[in-house]
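dumping this here so i dont lose it again. seq + smiles for flavin-adenine dinucleotide
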Amino acid sequence: MHVLISGAGVAGQALAYWLNRGGAAVTVVERAPALREGGHAVDFRGAAHLDVLRRMGALEEIERRRTGMGAMYYVNAAGRRVSRMPADLFAGDVEILRSDLAKVFYELTAPAGVEYRFGDSVRALREEPGGVAVAFEHAPQARYDLVIGADGLHSAVRALAFGPEEDYVHHLGLHCAIFPVENFLGLDHTAEAYRTTSRVVIVTSANHNAEARAQLFFPSPKVYDRRDLDAQRRAVAEAFAGVGWHTPRLLDALRATPELYLDSVAQVRMPRWSAGRVALLGDAAYSPCLLSGMGSGLAVVGAYVLAGELLRAGADHAAGFSAYERIMRPYAEGAQRGAEGNAAMMVPQGRLLTAFLNQYIKLVPYLPGKQMIANAARRTAEAVELPAYAWAGS
Ligand SMILES: Cc1cc2nc3c(=O)[nH]c(=O)nc-3n(C[C@H](O)[C@H](O)[C@H](O)COP(=O)(O)OP(=O)(O)OC[C@H]3O[C@@H](n4cnc5c(N)ncnc54)[C@H](O)[C@@H]3O)c2cc1C
């Protein structure tokens, strides 16, 4: 079986690992010119996520490279810390920079025979009897037994095989902008957050304090053109004009940065994750949104299950895709339900609600039931039973 995976993100690399280990030939095509540097951190929580990473032989290295982030502090406009959110309330069991994770997975897959093709992308798909003919932006056309779209929220494979993004991507009403800044607050493995009416500004130390990252959340019904960096910068600057604390300094950095991430906080909801010989995995199929803290966990568990069920089904790929969806759908939908609440609470509209939330945040560390918040996230993360596949170890 020769499988083409579009996307060398968390999902695509994890799937490549498992398919390769199960004996399939795997090609990964990635639009970026090389493995990504920098970027945000992702976390894994609960037994299911950690078990898959352990079975991959990746957990030890991930723990070695963990970011080691601690508590987050809410500050007032004067910069005084008014509330401390302990890491165990919101963080997972292990957090790692996405770029570090990509390196760990690359080391497990490329030397083992997975073919990576950077700087290219799928341009067209045509299903034929017994395979899929794939046209690329650069490489010559080739034929594969199966094609898996693991190319994220704005998946190209999804658009080609299932239809336009607007049919599946549900904007949750806010945007998130992230860009690097100097660690001018001297943050030591921590973050500071400032909330004002309908705006949230977070500065978090990154790369073991060598730099920091600004994360700006704002409500927005509009979806911005992801290819127009200047328009994106202007939109963020307009949304945060007049916001206090260190926001003006962050906006200065924004004006100069070539490295801006701006995207809608969005979920992917699809009635089916496969069509013929093409299927979707990770954010492309079931993004729970970046506020869920579950996207990377869902990606690695989904990769394990998809590979396992495909290899179990042998020539009957339709049975493999169905079994993958039967196991993963309730799990992914549970994560999505939890995240909708996070999105609604992140940037409450209006002064009154913001003032209420600011008071609530001050109280959270002292609430007797505070551990329930962390426990609920853990229950969501553990709400799946990993099937056993003989060739995958245990
Ligand atoms: C700012 C931010 C913070 C986050 N924080 C967390 C967190 O704390 N915890 C957590 O669990 N998750 C978090 N997430 C979500 C997490 O990153 C994703 O859910 C997870 O990485 C899903 O992985 P994926 O491989 O499905 O998609 P992605 O990580 O998006 O990977 C998709 C890959 O496909 C490539 N690609 C895209 N289009 C094409 C194309 N046309 N052809 C070829 N390749 C293509 C991309 O370059 C990328 O490498 C966060 C996400 C963001 C954006």
